[in-house]
Each structure stands twice: as C-alpha cells, then as structure tokens.
C-alpha cells in the first residue's frame, strides 16, 4: 500500500466545537490479480494464508472523542 496524499482539515466553530477531517488516498502497489477476483474463493481461504490483502489502518484516538464516523 502506498499513501499518495493526506489532507487534514480542522474546523473551529464560534461555540468552541472542533471538527477534524482527515482524507487519505491509498493505492494498492501489490501484485496484480491473475484472472478474476472471486469473493467466494477469497472468503473460503484461511485468513492467515492471505498475505496480499489490505486488512486496515490503526489510529490512536483521544479518549474524549465523540461523533466519530468513517467512509471508504
């Protein structure tokens, strides 16, 4: 995986609320698929054997955070 761009937007309201938005653009730089992708075949494999699948990103978030959401 390669992060091609990262954008962080911080909005501060007159009432003291802070909204932080982070946008990441990620490109899969791994090997190409041979043939078609099958969700059935992928799901039936032992997940420990799958080395080229992107499994997620971890973030350290403050304890006081609220209103968290994400989109992909």
């Amino acid at each position: 995986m390669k992060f091609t761009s990262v954008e962080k937007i911080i909005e501060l309201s007159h009432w003291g609320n802070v909204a932080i938005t982070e946008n990441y653009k990620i490109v899969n730089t791994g090997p190409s698929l041979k043939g078609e992708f099958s969700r059935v075949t992928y799901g039936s494999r032992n997940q420990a054997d799958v080395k080229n699948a992107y499994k997620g990103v971890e973030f350290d978030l403050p304890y006081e955070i609220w209103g968290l959401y994400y989109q992909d």
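The two ends are 15 Å apart (CA to CA). Helices lie at 39-44.
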